Amino acid sequence: MPKVIILSIYITCMALAGLSGSAQANENKAQVNKGLIFDGDAKCTKCHDENESNPVLSIGKTRHGTSADGRLPSCAGCHGESETHVNKPEGRKDRPKPTFPFGKQTQNDINGHNEVCESCHKGGKMIHWTSSIHAARDVACTSCHQLHTAHDKVRDKRTQPAVCFTCHKEQRVQANKPSHHPILEGKVVCSDCHASHGSAGPKLMQRDSIADTCFTCHMEKRGPFVRKHEPAEDCTICHNPHGSAIDNLLKTRPPFLCQQCHEPASHQGGFPGMAAGKSTTAGQQGITNARACLNCHTNIHGTNNPANQGNERTFRR
Ligand code: HEC
Ligand code: HEC
Ligand code: HEC
Ligand code: HEC
Ligand code: HEC
Ligand code: HEC
Ligand code: HEC
Ligand code: HEC
Ligand code: HEC
Ligand code: HEC
Known about the structure:
Strand order of the largest sheet: 1-2
Order of helices and strands: HHHHHHHHHHHEHHEH
Bound molecules: heme C
Number of helices: 14
Helix content: 25-40%
Largest sheet: 2 strands, antiparallel
Distance between the termini: 64 Å
Structural class: mainly alpha
Radius of gyration: 29 Å
Low-confidence stretches: 1-35, 269-279
Shape: elongated
């Protein structure tokens, strides 16, 4: 194709893109303006309009601003009627706060704010909320959720960890350790394992147990195994799910990990040398080699090895 034609196609495309871009913008604006004015909102939006440094009207772009949905709150539906805020009492110097101002103070004083949200968001996915540790510790819905933006950080894989880390600093440290779930990489997210609104399992687990939660991604660790390495119900006996300096998220390095439960001296079958300094093969590999016990006990979670039951029993190949 001659260059001129390519160029003119390019220009035409750009022009079209520009046109449709601004048409889109106008449409968005119309939608926002339409979506945000529920009956009665005008009494707030006469002061709180698009000129705000904090664009409160962008709530029109969220689910809470879908005017077609009759279940949705107006400004007063969340902030309360705010009588004295709307009509500043005569003689008062500063404008009283709205009934439910939300914002920063809700992190220290939820004072009825959660009840506003709970009046609509109850049952269903919120069924465990009232018995959750977050509710018990007065964590505000709005400590995690932002309402006046189409991008609610806590519901986006890439930005969620930062929200949780504001309170959970220890997990931030762990997530930065050499062996970690790819949380900071945006591939695994806190809410893959934890149900922030509460759950029937321990530690806000998404499933009824820790192991069941892990099996959602690590299916092969469920087995079935002919021989299973007990204890198997709690993976965190050996693993730290958030991060570790040791490979494979291990809490302690083998052989010490293993020796928490297995007496070094009890090793049978001509492998007495689990103590340091012995020159037997097992002694060498058991202590000085980085994989230690795992050099031989390679299938530590469980085995299916009908051909060699001795190996099967002791988690070897
Ligand atoms: C007459 C003007 C006016 C009206 C009407 C009005 N506001 Fe305000 N609003 C203000 C001003 C001014 C501020 C900032 C006050 C401040 O900084 O303390 C404010 C602040 C707020 C804040 C932030 C509170 C905080 O803690 O900083 C919220 C939320 C709010 N208004 C909601 C509403 C709602 C909801 C309505 C309608 C029910 C409403 N406003 C009606 C003038 C108004
Ligand atoms: C679904 C609940 C909800 C609705 C509906 C709602 N707000 Fe808010 N508003 C909040 C929360 C929560 C905050 C605290 C900041 C945040 O989470 O975005 C807030 C913050 C504000 C602020 C303070 C902003 C700041 O940064 O200081 C103003 C002003 C405000 N809202 C006005 C309004 C107006 C006007 C309407 C109606 C157009 C409205 N809100 C509708 C929940 C709501
Ligand atoms: C008057 C009822 C009402 C109130 C009050 C209310 N919401 Fe909602 N909210 C809804 C409805 C309806 C939806 C639409 C989605 C749905 O069906 O759950 C929604 C959606 C949401 C969503 C999902 C948004 C999305 O894009 O999918 C979040 C998060 C949320 N609300 C949080 C809150 C929080 C936090 C509060 C308190 C500050 C609150 N809501 C107050 C009715 C309400
Ligand atoms: C500890 C942080 C945290 C708190 C506190 C919290 N949420 Fe959430 N919320 C989340 C996360 C994370 C998601 C998205 C992933 C998920 O569903 O687990 C979410 C999703 C939602 C949704 C989307 C609908 C859905 O379930 O798919 C609604 C609605 C909601 N939250 C309402 C609330 C309300 C209302 C409160 C207070 C009673 C609240 N949240 C408290 C973290 C939190
Ligand atoms: C791969 C699954 C998984 C992921 C992803 C995950 N966790 Fe956990 N978390 C667990 C398990 C299992 C426990 C319970 C055992 C433990 O404390 O080691 C736990 C415990 C916790 C605890 C309680 C610690 C205690 O001492 O009781 C907090 C707080 C926590 N996680 C926060 C987070 C945060 C924040 C994120 C995201 C940055 C996150 N978790 C990601 C699995 C996970
Ligand atoms: C505003 C602070 C705050 C935020 C934000 C927050 N949490 Fe928490 N979380 C707490 C408090 C307080 C506890 C109670 C235990 C404690 O003091 O650590 C807790 C406990 C937990 C536990 C331990 C549950 C148990 O049974 O021991 C887990 C898991 C957890 N949070 C996950 C999360 C996740 C995931 C997020 C982000 C989606 C998050 N939290 C955001 C304050 C917060
Ligand atoms: C949402 C899916 C998901 C869940 C749930 C999950 N994991 Fe993972 N896990 C991963 C991914 C992805 C990797 C990284 C794999 C890779 O890098 O090839 C991983 C890696 C690992 C590793 C190897 C880490 C390393 O340094 O190589 C261990 C150990 C592990 N997970 C244990 C667990 C345990 C224990 C649980 C339950 C508490 C769990 N996982 C839950 C997705 C998950
Ligand atoms: C008795 C300690 C122990 C328990 C309990 C345990 N693991 Fe492991 N896990 C290990 C060791 C040791 C390794 C390293 C294995 C190797 O390098 O040969 C490992 C490695 C892993 C790996 C990464 C390497 C691979 O084989 O894919 C995953 C994923 C994993 N474990 C998941 C789990 C899950 C899920 C559970 C709970 C059902 C669990 N582990 C329970 C000790 C344990
Ligand atoms: C939390 C305690 C615990 C830890 C840690 C642990 N084990 Fe075990 N292990 C057990 C229990 C309990 C059994 C079952 C004993 C039985 O069936 O007689 C077992 C069984 C075994 C067996 C088979 C024993 C037999 O008599 O048939 C081998 C081999 C083994 N473990 C190796 C290891 C290795 C290697 C490690 C470190 C990677 C390890 N274990 C870590 C508790 C543990
Ligand atoms: C050089 C390979 C090798 C190394 C390294 C090794 N083992 Fe073994 N282990 C074996 C063999 C082979 C058996 C089976 C012996 C038999 O059948 O009599 C065995 C058996 C076991 C048993 C079953 C009980 C018993 O005494 O027969 C346990 C428990 C065990 N090993 C734990 C460990 C631990 C913990 C370590 C690390 C400190 C370790 N092993 C290192 C090869 C090894």
